[in-house]
Write a structure and sequence with these properties.
By secondary structure, this protein is an alpha+beta fold. The chain has helices spanning about 5-15, 155-160, 200-210, 225-240, 260-265, 300-315, 370-375, and strands spanning about 20-25, 40, 50, 55-60, 70-75, 90-95, 105-110, 115, 120, 130-135, 145, 165-170, 175-180, 185, 195-200, 215-220, 245, 270, 275, 285, 290-295, 330, 345-350, 360, 380-385, 395-400. Strand 20 (about 285) and strand 21 (about 290-295) form a beta hairpin.
Length: about 400
């Protein structure tokens, strides 16, 4: 199978993806979830004309000329409206959020009045409507304010609450089973043998899944034998995983068994190997309704491919619109050489000058086993296939890496 482009691989991966089902969750549990349906306001906000300041509800014509004095007939704190109608020459002591009484059309702020018993002297005029929030200023009943596919954050959560939604319809979290493979791997905290290393990819991929709104399911580390890999695949199926992510074992070596065992399990292969660096051995397919994404074993390759492919797949399952990943264009801090037929994703840091301008500096070392350079990088510089050399100052496409 020949190498395919990154764009074609992503298109094949996302072809035919349907969002997962919906579930209702309490408002307090909805932070970070993705809406499965549009949300319309169940009420008008504010539901009445309300005072925006502490002061006095008055008739604008009564204070249009100075000197002016008015008789205070009562008060209206928030939550307790005045039942009567304001008559000419009258004022009502009012507080922020309280309903403006019938007959009043202006709020005279308390700083612009002096009170003596039940009489106020007006110190400054105010036009009709001053400091009055009309009914429906924020939104009206039936107005759609949050749409399906939006991720609920603190602002959306507050708006949903104001719309009087105690329960939100959200997409269930896509379940992503993660299988690390290889005799050379041991779990973090274990004592590796003389020829072993600590597994790291599964931890990073699981964190990315959680950040994207998915539910990671760790299947552990399978040794390089068909029975163990087949058992792990069966476990993913039994758990009804939406995605099975395999780590390593999908290349062309004698001990790379993952693709073969997946084929025995009935995988329909969408693609294998893409024109990308790091990440050439990437594989994708499907077993029944479970998507399969075979990530390379090298740590940087695995995490970069997760960012570029696993993240969009999860977003598609959540019903979110999947578009080309946002890219800035920044000037290079140094000269860089030309590129071959593969699309490169170079780990880089962003330099910020005192004037706020930015340049991007690719790391001198881009080996796909080096996690430290990825952890300390701010961005990935994207180099198209067959791109020529570039001098410092040339602008290049940059994917900013998410930071906490």
């Amino acid at each position: 199978m020949s190498l395919i482009s990154v764009d074609e691989a992503l298109a094949r991966l996302l072809a035919g993806v349907e969002p997962v089902g919906a579930e209702p969750v309490p408002l307090a549990a909805a932070n970070g979830r993705v809406l499965a349906a549009d949300l319309a306001a169940t009420r008008t906000q504010p539901p009445f004309a309300a005072s925006a300041m502490d002061g006095y509800a008055v008739r604008a014509e009564d204070i249009s000329a100075l000197p002016a004095s008015l008789r205070v007939i009562g008060e209206a704190p928030a939550g307790h409206g005045y039942a009567g109608t304001l008559q000419p020459g009258e004022a009502l002591r009012i507080f922020t959020g309280a309903p403006v009484p019938q007959g009043a059309d202006t709020i005279l702020i308390q700083e612009n009045a002096t009170r003596d018993g039940d009489t106020i002297a007006v110190l400054e005029t105010a036009p009709r409507g001053r400091f009055v929030r009309p009914a429906g200023l924020d939104f009206t009943q039936g107005e759609v304010l949050l749409c399906a596919g939006e991720r609920v954050g603190f602002r959306e959560l507050a708006l949903a609450a104001a719309m009087n939604h105690a329960v939100l319809p959200v997409r269930r979290r896509p379940k992503v089973a993660i299988l690390a493979t290889g005799d050379e791997l041991v779990e973090p905290g274990a004592e590796p043998g003389p020829d072993q290393i600590i597994a790291s990819n599964h931890a990073g991929v699981a964190a990315l899944v959680t950040d994207c709104g998915g539910e990671p399911l760790q299947l552990g580390i399978a040794p390089d034998n068909r029975q163990a890999i087949a058992a792990a695949i069966a476990a993913a199926r039994e758990a009804r995983a939406d995605i099975l992510v395999t780590l390593g074992g999908a290349s062309v070596g004698d001990h790379d068994l993952v693709q073969e065992v997946l084929g025995d399990a009935g995988m329909d292969l969408a693609f294998w190997r893409i024109a990308m660096r790091p990440g050439k051995p990437l594989m994708a397919g499907r077993i029944g309704d479970m998507r399969v994404l075979g990530l390379p074993g090298n740590p940087v390759s695995s995490l970069v491919c997760s960012l570029l492919f696993l993240r969009p797949l999860i977003e598609a399952l959540l019903g979110r619109e999947v578009t080309a990943r946002d890219r800035d264009h920044l000037p290079l801090a140094v000269d860089i050489g030309g590129n071959d037929r593969r699309e490169d994703y170079l780990r880089a840091t962003i330099r910020r000058a005192d004037d706020g301008s930015e340049t991007v500096l690719p790391s001198d070392r881009q080996d796909s086993s080096m996690l430290a350079t990825l952890a300390h990088a701010d961005a990935l510089v994207v180099r198209p296939p067959h791109a020529g050399p570039l001098a410092a100052g040339a602008r290049v496409p940059v994917i900013r890496l998410p930071r906490r």
